Input
Amino acid sequence: MAEVDKVFVILDPTTLEQPSLIMAESIAKRGAKAALHVYCSLNEKSIQAEAGVEPEQTYANARERVEDWIERLVAPSRELGLSVETEVEISENWRTATVAAVARQNCLLAIKARSPMNSRRRLFREASDWQLLRDLVCPVYLVKTSPTRRPGKVLAAIKHRTEKRVYTEANELIIQTARGIATGFDAELHVVTAYKNDFYYPDRQKFADRCGLPRNQVRAEMGASAEAITKVAKEIGADLVVIARVGKQSTKRDVGHTAEKVIATLDTNLLVLPLTEST
Output
């Protein structure tokens, strides 16, 4: 992931706590200070009509209230010397509006608090986080655990067999990004991969050498990738998991859906890096 000079912060207007902003501030303070673009999309259907007030004025009043709220939220960031822009939109679909806003700002990183997932939505794969990630073209940091806690362990999830060039590129990007984060936060870096059966079992020492890590910081698990990632992340107590989302250029459809499954089952911070497979 390239050096980030602007972070797109997605706020949730339905709650007072905004871990995405806290995490963005923490990232922006490190190294060359990144600017923050703090964004909030209001669903027009959630804005209640006011007696005797025209709909346009009702929307304007709602926007003003949210803008005032956001200005209070970002005041501490500005006091730290960070450059902060704010934006409030009223739209029919917050995901569509958010994707367009990220594209307008040309940000290299978007940060969002993870949405709660219940069993029914998991069954039908309707996670709002996944729906958003499918259309965003920049890396997305999904914040779950307390953003004030420094990540002690970063887990990079890579593909064992890379028959296609895009997967080799994905592995390199994941390792590079995870290593940079671990170094920046003085955290411990771990790597996990999954293999199909005993025939494909990777040599652990070669795997460790390939990752530039000691053997006790790499894991190879037999089975599906999402299950292996979830298992190892829980066992080592990973504070952040770095994964890739590989999509097809012609259809925008994602290959394998490993990222989707991890989002649905793993309750921790996630950094999702997008790549595109040529057709």
Q: What stands out?
A: The chain has nine helices and ten strands. The chain has two domains: 6-113, 153-277. The radius of gyration is 20 Å. The mean pLDDT is 86.
